[in-house]
Amino acid sequence: MRTGYHGNKQDTESAVANMIEYLMVTGVIMVLFIVMLLLVNTNIMEDPANRLAYVAFTDIGNGVSTRIVDVYAVSPANGTVSTKFNIPDDIVGRSYFVDIKPGTTGQDILVYRGSLNSRISLAGIGATDKGWAGGSTTGAGVNEISYDSRGIT
């Protein structure tokens, strides 16, 4: 016996009930599928990318800090020192910025993009000589660190 068909007589109410049941079940499944699609983008794709970017920002900040300390260590009493270095052009397919900002204990290197940022201390020398370092850059191109014994001109 088929649903909605009894002998020679068709039961239209049963057929309509089955159709409404299928539509309701399909509607609920579609709503759950749409909610799942919205959550997948945030939880499976964006969060790991942001975690990776934060770790990369920390590594970049530590590298820039080390290079600044190296220039500070070999800086002459009279004269100039300059060095060029390269950092990644982009992290997870997007550009970023590097700034030297005043911090709570001296100067910090701030690597950021939008609301995601990493603040790294200027490797101990930021507190010894406040305000001697400054500037900003991006990942694009070759970057330069310069020291001039006369100060910022």
As a whole number of angstroms, the C-alpha radius of gyration is 31 Å
Distance between the first and last residues' Cα = 95 Å
Count of strand segments: 8
Q: What is the N-to-C order of secondary-structure elements (H for helix, E for strand)?
A: EEHEEEEHEE
- The SS-based structural class is alpha+beta
Main β-sheet description = 4 strands, antiparallel
What level of helicity do the residues show?
A: 40-55%
How would you concisely characterize the structure shown here?
This protein is α+β, with helices and mostly antiparallel strands. It has helices spanning 12-73, 125-128, and strands spanning 5-6, 9-10, 80-85, 97-102, 107-113, 116-121, 135-138, 143-148. A hairpin with a 2-residue loop joins strand 1 and strand 2.
Provide structural commentary:
It contains two helices and eight strands. It has 153 residues and is α+β, with helices and mostly antiparallel strands. It is rod-shaped and about 110 Å long.
Q: How is the topology of this model organized?
A:
Blueprint: E1 5-6, E2 9-10, H1 12-73, E3 80-85, E4 97-102, E5 107-113, E6 116-121, H2 125-128, E7 135-138, E8 143-148
List the keywords.
single chain, 153 residues, alpha+beta, two-stranded antiparallel sheet, 25% strand
